[in-house]
Amino acid sequence: MTERGSSLAAIVASVPWCCLLPAAFALLGLAGAGAARATTVELMPFLLGASLLFLGRAHYLIHVRRPGAPWARWIVWLSTVLTIGLWAPRLL
Predict the structure, then answer these.
(1) What is 14-80 written as a DSSP string?
(2) What is the reported pTM?
(3) Chain centre to alpha carbon of residue 68
(4) What is the pLDDT of residues 9-38, one digit of tens each?
(5) SS3 for 1?
(6) Dihedrals phi, psi of 50, to nearest 5 degrees
């Protein structure tokens, strides 16, 4: 039993785990990012529509229905600008 354990220990010690494990995790992360990209490309029209719907609702609530606090208006406008900035490259 100790001979088998020492053989396993020698194999484990000889493998450069400090390099293989991060590389394996990086490959898994890239595969996950690729799968997420493939899924979101198909859902892009729906996600764009949801973004427009939610931003329109936020502007309606903050400006028409119940005039909000100045900081709330800043947050809604900042969200709108950031959303346009993130969607514009994908649509062009």
Answers:
(1) HS-HHHHHHHHHHHHHHHHHHHHHHHHHHHHHHHHHHHHHHHHHHHHIIIIIS---HHHHHHHHHHH
(2) 0.56
(3) 30
(4) 666 666 666 676 677 767 777 677 777 777
(5) coil
(6) -65, -40
